[in-house]
Amino acid sequence: MSRKQKTAAARIAVLYIPLFIVLALVLIPFLWAVSTSFKTIPEFQSETLHYLPQSLNFDNYSYVWGKSGFSTYFVNSVIVSSLSVVVVILLCICNAYALSRYKFRGKSGMTLLLLGTQMMPVILYLVPLFSVFKTIKLIDSPAALVIFNIILQTPFNTLLMRSFVNGVPKELDEAAMVDGAGRMTIMCRILLPVLKPGIVAVSAFTFIGCWNEFLVAFTFIQTQRKFTIPVGLKTMIGEYSVNYPALAAGSVIALIPPVILFAIIQKHLVAGLSAGAVKG
């Protein structure tokens, strides 16, 4: 075997085979869910295994979207996730700018504290916040989910946004100050346009985290019409039986917004992650 052939074989073994395995592990469950969503219940329960549906049956999608209230769950998730993303982005930009540009006592401790919050399980927040929300009458309100998402998503995304701000030269701030610009002007007119890839990356991670949140919504929301998509999927699991084709159809619908989001912003997301890796 020549040296060129050995290099090609090593490249296949080290690069392509692991990528193929990972891709298969990711795609096979998704493709199986899509296939199941088009099957009828008798076809799914048949003793003969069918990898593909015998016909494209959209009854499961019409049932999930129209009769099971999934359209309401979908709208609730969009509202909660969108509001959470807007507030988290605003907080993260201000926090990241302060940690990156200002020198103050306790700055290192604040950074460690933000990092330490990521080591705490979500369930640890539920009991105290449930008591707080019950006192201020926010239980069974979408506002409770938005507030919890802000609390949960802000620390990590602040640190992520700070890496983007660190990649912006301080000389831009100094030049603007020489021209008489204040801090708010610098943030709005100079920093925000430069931070576009970082804002896109943080928005994507925040949206996915809020969109997939189940435990919080299941704990704080009690009225069915206020459920989000993850809780709505849970309600489709009966005590004695499960309509798996309809459940698969609901899962596919739940995947559509994240897939579209990443398809639209993938270029900005890659650029943002690369920019965030710059040492400031």
UniProtKB/TrEMBL annotation:
Main location: membrane
Pfam entry (one): BPD_transp_1
InterPro entries in alphabetical order: BP-dep_ABC_trans_perm, MetI-like, MetI-like_sf
Membrane topology: Multi-pass membrane protein
CDD domains: TM_PBP2 (cd06261)
PANTHER family named in the record: INNER MEMBRANE ABC TRANSPORTER PERMEASE PROTEIN YCJP, MALTOSE TRANSPORT SYSTEM PERMEASE-RELATED
Residue ranges of domain ABC transmembrane type-1 in the record: 74-265
UniProt xrefs under PROSITE patterns: ABC_TM1
Segments crossing the lipid bilayer: 12-34, 73-99, 111-133, 199-221, 242-265
Protein name: ABC transmembrane type-1 domain-containing protein
Keywords: Cell membrane, Membrane, Transmembrane, Transmembrane helix, Transport
GO terms (BP aspect): transmembrane transport
Organism of provenance: [Clostridium] citroniae WAL-19142
Family: Belongs to the binding-protein-dependent transport system permease family.
A GO-annotated cellular component: plasma membrane
Organism phylogeny: Bacteria, Bacillati, Bacillota, Clostridia, Lachnospirales
Subcellular location, record wording: Cell membrane
Recorded superkingdom: Bacteria
